[in-house]
Amino acid sequence: MKILIWRTGAFGDVLITTPLIRHLNSQGHQIFIVCGERGEQVLRNNPHVFKILPHDQTIKNELLGDHMEYLKRKHHLDRIIDLNESIECALSQHPRSANYKLPKKERIAKFNRNFYEYCFEHAGERWGDLTSFKPELFFEKSELDDVRKHLKSDCFNVLIGLSGSGTNKAYPWIMDLCNNIMKSHKDIHIITVGDTKCQIFEDGIDDGNITKLSGNISMRQSMALTSMVNLVIAPDTGIIHASGCYDTPKICLLGHNTKECITKYFTNDYSIESDPTLAPCSPCLLMIYDMKQQCPLNPITNSSICMADGIPLQNVYDKFLRIYNARL
Q1: Contact partners, residue 175, CB within 8 Å, separation at least 6
Q2: What is the pLDDT of residues 315-328, one digit of tens each?
Q3: Is 80 exceeded by the pLDDT of residue 39?
Q4: So what's the pLDDT on residue 9?
Q5: Strands (E), the chain
Q6: Average pLDDT of the segment spanning 202-222
Q7: CA–CA separation, 145 and 168 (whole Å)
Q8: Which among 77, 238, 285, 290 could disulfide-bond with 12, CB atoms 3.0 to 4.6 Å apart, if both were Cys?
Q9: What's the whole-model pTM score?
Q10: How far, in Å, CA of 222 to CA of 187, rounded?
Q11: Which residue has the higher pLDDT, 92 or 248?
């Protein structure tokens, strides 16, 4: 059977689909994918994908159904699985959803569910007998050799992701965390990654045993690094989902989502959830498009309180120490 999976969105969104892609291909199906440039970075070299079809962004939303039927005829497809807004509208509540205004207790009872599991449910595929929900990435040797140059072989390498797909995911104490780690541990080498805007965060980190790569390497290269370093620390973003492909220890800083949603099936997971006694709105399980309009903000950092107040710097540092000392 020829199956088209349609999933545009961020890096993490597409990584969530990789267990489903693997599952369908293992059943003998030929998998076509429609995705954007970010999805192509995630799915490049994936042996379970027969063909990646570029997403034509000029097509209006009201005509997408007709376009899918066109692709179905053109490629002789037997089935289309539309995963667009599958999680956004079903679990992470969109502002236009009636469930957006449900009391927090009711939202958690209904929607605190694992994104990887729900991907299968949305596609109508059974998953109860699966042995792994691990996402997947596939790199050529040359790609890995290229990013390995950023590591220091005589150090404990820590990859720190500075940004998420939403401003509400940024951890305002990340600069202090980096500085504290470098001051107390001379054998730690920190590698920071993110988009060009994250260079502002990097400017606040002291010079030392650190390699600042924000805006200087691709997201695919950053994802490759998660397979090589000794530890990954990042908010709920594509870097964390990439680290979920590997046994690399990881600390996901979770504000509006939970471990159940994101890291449930990841190995060596040391994620930290926002403390609702410090940030009563967390976890909200909402889609945040405008943090200033939707979130209570910390008055000092002007960031969401689930990240600024709900995840104290000392908690993250203590979790880092636990992982660092465990290797001794």
Answers
A1: 201, 204, 205
A2: 999 999 999 999 86
A3: yes
A4: 84
A5: 2-6, 30-35, 51-54, 79-82, 156-161, 188-193, 210-212, 231-235, 250-254, 272-273
A6: 95
A7: 34
A8: 238
A9: 0.94
A10: 22
A11: 248
Which residues, in sequence order, are bridge partners of residue 6? 34, 82
Provide the 10 A C-beta neighbour count for residue 152: 13
Q: Across the chain, what does the average pLDDT equal? A: 93
- Give me 262's structure tokens: 């994101």
Of 137-151, 163-177, 242-256, 259-273, the one with minimum mean pLDDT is 163-177
Those residues with Cβ within 8 angstroms of residue 87's Cβ, 6 or more apart along the chain or in another chain: 13, 16, 115, 118, 119, 122
Instruction: Quote the percentage of the chain above a pLDDT of 90.
Output: 84
* 92/236 Cα distance (integer angstroms): 13
Q: Measure the CA–CA gap between 328 and 138, rounded to whole angstroms.
A: 31
How many Cβ atoms sit within 10 Å of the Cβ of residue 17? Answer: 27
Q: Nearest Cα to 31, choosing from 55, 64, 9, 53?
A: 53
Residue in the block written with tokens 């997201």: 219
Determine the Cα–Cα distance for residues 192 and 280; give it in Å rounded to an integer: 30
pLDDT tens readout for residues 114-166 = 999 999 999 999 876 665 899 999 999 999 999 999 999 999 999 999 987 77
Q: At what angle do helices 11-26 and 115-123 cross, to 10 degrees?
A: 50
Environment class of residue 35 by beta-carbon count within 10 Å: exposed (0-12), middle (13-18) or buried (19+)?
buried
| pLDDT score at 80 | 95
CA–CA distances in Å: residue 71 to residues 31, 41, 316: 13, 22, 47
pLDDT at residue 221, rounded to an integer:
98
Specify the amino acid at residue 36: G
Containing H/E element for 55? none
Chain position carrying tokens 């961020």:
10
